[in-house]
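Appendix B, Record 12. Input sequence as logged:
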Amino acid sequence: MKKSTIAITLGDPAGIGPEIVAKTFNVKELYDKANLLLVGDRFVLERALDLTGLDLKINIIENVEDGKYEYGTIDLIDLGIIRDDYDFGKVNAKCGEASYQYIRKAGELAMTGKVESVATSPINKESLRAANVPFIGHTEMFEGISGVHDPLTMFEVEGLRVFFLSRHLSLRDAIDQVKYDRILDYIERCTEAMARLGLHGSLAVAGLNPHSGEHGLFGNEEVEEVTPAIEEAQRRGFDVVGPIGADSVFAQALAGKYAAVLSLYHDQGHIATKTYNFMKTISLTNSMPFLRTSVDHGTAYDVAGKNIASEVSMVEAVRLAAKYGPGFIKD
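Logged structural output:
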């Protein structure tokens, strides 16, 4: 199978992104799985290499096809935004602007088919705001880059895969999103995403209320919205089951009974995945023309610049981009 190319973003320079990215490029096995390309600033990368003590060479390139893609060398598209010192662990408008431009460039490479995947490291919302960046986070940025409304998010951790019916809403507002039409639409979208990733098996829809409401004894959402949507999807030929109580569906999926779970609100699925393995829980966005994977932690300003941040999550994000990236290679 042909190796895909992954554009990795350097993240907020003042956070832990640069150091965990540098450590990720020092993982030799990743080069056997994909071509790794970094989008960032040479100054920031050099500072990260000095901090971590890694003996890795920097190869500045302008075009993706110019990369060496060999262990020991970091192929870098240098945007030249940060050229002098900045303080680790502090909100900085220049760093916010740089982190946004790294993402924007990586997204452009993906949209033009130069890379199949983008793996992102942490950015800081306060620094983005200080830089007057018109997006609050990665998802919104990629929505703007790809033109895809409401990009579909999936978490994966060691075989447990979870989709989300809604993201950043209050719990009260999230419950209002549990409607027949939205659930039916998401079953279809999730099934398409699973096929694109080469996943086979049933999609399980989690229950909203305890024990899925016990047929209306406590809560009517399952009776009035969730079950009818699932039954209609089944009539249309979708391999979907549920609703299944949220206290058991994630454990069953982890054991292999289901290929993926549709969580009905943000924390329902986040708690399940992150409790099982916080560092290896990776976010995938795959309803765009390219795949995006991401660590699911922040910039950790409190430890930035101390060379103690773990690269495990970043390595896993790149590993999953390499795993699924070939499915996005254009013929």
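Residues 14 and 86 are 7 Å apart (CA to CA).
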